[in-house]
Amino acid sequence: MHTLTTARLILRAPRAEDAAALVAIANDWEVAKQTASLPHPYELRHAEQWIAGQTGDRRMQLQHVLCTKDGTVVGVATVYEKDTNTEIGYFLGRAYWNRGYASEAVPELVRHAFAVLPIRALHAWAFVENEASHRVLRKAGFRICGDFEGDHPERGGWRRVLRFVVERPGKLVLVAAAALLDATGQVLLAQRPPGKSMAGLWEFPGGKVAAGESPEVALARELDEELGIVVRVEDLTPLSFASHAYDDFHLLMPLYVCRVWRGDLQSREGQRLKWVAPDAIVAAELPPADVPLLGPLRDLVRGRLG
């Protein structure tokens, strides 16, 4: 078990001598009621079982006690397998709430989990009213992926739960794209040709930003190479950006609006082109990363922006 450190905390393997401190922390209803499986009352035998890795339907992967730099035990953070998911769970003693400790520990454990475990995603959950835990998870990169109601008789009966997920970070790919608008407010889309990933989908023209390039310079270059038009950097107006995790990379794509260019549009790479009103674009015809850009573009064309 690796020992991890943050600015104020040490995350280390549990020891037999931690049992009494864990009982003092966990045998508190205000702590236990925000967890699904922490026994209450929490007795010495429960702490000893957890330290030994005996956790019922969970297979422990990473098991850490959270300590301050002076050795004070303040909580627990674990990564475990349950059903088909790998999940992260944590709790702090009530005396250590609202100090930012969870916001330090959880991102470090997430980073470590992706570094040492062959997993593609980490899951977490929190009761809907536990807003403090929601904030901790969001700061660690988690997003809400669903909700459900579950029967937790030891926690008061049926309670609504939010599920969270964070995907393994992939290689960051920076791409610049253009919304070329004509005088009627239609935008140019290019169809991805056969043989490429997501072939047949329609996208905003553009391409990858090379090392040493700015997004604007890269976009002007790509528009020349793909469409045979000359665009000045000063004629590119930033509108929005997309941030999307694909299976093996993370795409970051600023979208620029361009209304002025020189030259006649050509399909230099064999792609089909079409002009379409933003309101008529079907989201299902776009790559997933392009879909969130439709809203800002439609607002612009309707005159709500600029």
Structural description of this entry:
With 306 residues, the chain is α+β, with helices and mostly antiparallel strands. The chain contains 7 helices and 15 strands. The strands form 4 sheets. Strands 1-2-3-4-5 form a 5-stranded antiparallel sheet, sandwiched between helices. α4 (101-116) crosses α5 (131-139). It is elongated, with a radius of gyration of 25 Å.
Q: Terminal Cα separation, in Å?
A: 55 Å
Helical content (DSSP H or I, runs of 4+)? 10-25%
Q: Rounded to an integer, what's the Rg over CA atoms?
A: 25 Å
Question: What is the subunit arrangement here?
Answer: single chain
Strand content bin: 25-35%
The secondary-structure element order is EEHHHEEEHEHEEEEEEHEEEH
Mean pLDDT, to the nearest integer, reads 92
